Amino acid sequence: MIKRNYSPFGPDAQRAVESGLTAAEWYHTDVPRKVMKDLMARSDQPAIRDTIILYGCMILFAGLGIALWPSWWSAPFWLAYGVLYGSASDSRWHECGHGTAFKTPWMNTVVYEIASFMIMRNSATWRWSHARHHSETYLVGRDPEIAIMRPPELAKLVLNVFGIIDVLKFIPLILRNAISGPTVEERTFVPQSEWGKVRRVAIIYVAIYAVTILSAVAWGSLLPLLLIGLPRMYGAWHHVMTGLLQHGGLADNVIDHRLNSRTVLMNPISRFIYWNMNYHVEHHMFPMVPYHALPRLHEVMKADLPPPNRSIAEAFREMWPAIRRQMMNEDYFLRRTLPPTARPYREDFRQYVPGMMPTSAAE
Amino acid sequence: MPWTLACATDDIDEEDLIRWDHGGQTFAIYHSPDGEFFATAGLCTHENVHLCDGLVMGHLIECPKHNGQFDYRTGEAKRAPACANLKTYPVKVEGGRIFVEVA
């Protein structure tokens, strides 16, 4: 068993480049061009509808929370507001960052900036980290968005259900960004032309949080923080729950998204919060397809994919034992069976990259 | 520079593109919504992804991998993560055939 090194300056990152893994062509399901063009078509209408519902619900829940404060009767409304603030912002950040949610570019930009602030991600930095996540999904040392590093640290996963790890990382990072721009690690994926923007965004974030904290102190009330900042913690659980399922327990250092990503069928409320990112294999293979077309894309390509998990609970029942095994053996991963209609997995590079177990050893 | 036959005009749907490989290079040839034809380098300047699987929207081509955008008439990069412009090539249409002046 070889210990993985997730540093962008570490030996795994270096070998991924040297072996050609980072430059490899990823597997794609064959989808006829006309069908794909139809799926990729952009539209403002679904995202405008969803954004009105999202922000409308946030205003309603926050208003009821404020009206009933400090009674405990306000708690359910804060919890609902928190999930929309601290979890739905994750998917809005994601979709608008891709530029696929809306047809009109400025709409993507506005929702992206608001969502980035709410989810506590520097909007200038994370646009680039996510590009790398798509180029080099779960390549050790190269993908800056690996949610569950091996061996998994259970305590960190649990703490992050309340956003604790993310927020504790965010606070010093945004202050550093505001003072000196991107860190040395961030400069490995953010082009130099964007470094000034990273700093400007950080200064704006710090200023908003400073005003919020000062308001809370001046008024002697928790309300400003319940509205801005804290919901990133008390409402984080849904995006952590769905986010862990994206790649948890699956392979790393492969060039086939069917091996490292998971599609999970979900209830409509979770799909609204998550903006259909439960179709995660489909999204990674075809990131041009907007969130509202992913269910149709799933129908088109499902014969070439491992069967999706039928619910969040079922997906956790599959993933959780794998994560526990990875705590003891970090080379372990789930290798799901493909249907007879699917083309075989692409398993190139496995023999060249450290940290991979032979196919025969996987279960 | 020589004009090289690339394809027929009806090989490319309106508001779409095709890939054309020639002389060890790969190109993208576009059919704009107003009926004109254009040619650019075939790989995105961000990470060398073939643009032929991307989406043409008006006069923009969007890369299928990271959603970077270019104006395919000028090659200008219009949306991150694409920063460097695409190389463009002159195109002429004669008798329903598209010729590209390759460098």
Q: How large, in whole angstroms, is the Cα Rg of chain B?
A: 12 Å
Query: Could you name the ranges of chain B where pLDDT drops below 50 across 5 or more consecutive residues?
Result: none
Order of helices and strands of chain A: HHHHHHHHHHHHHHHHH
| Uncertain ranges of chain A | 352-363
The tally of strands of chain B reads: 11
Q: Strand tally of chain A, please?
A: 0
Q: Quick check: average pLDDT of chain A? A: 93
Total number of helices of chain B: 0
Derived structural class of chain A: mainly alpha
In this structure, how is the largest beta sheet of chain B organized? 4 strands, antiparallel
Per the CATH scheme, the topology name of chain B is Rieske Iron-sulfur Protein
3D shape of chain B: globular
Structural class by sheet pairing and helices of chain B: mainly beta
The total domain count of chain B is: 1
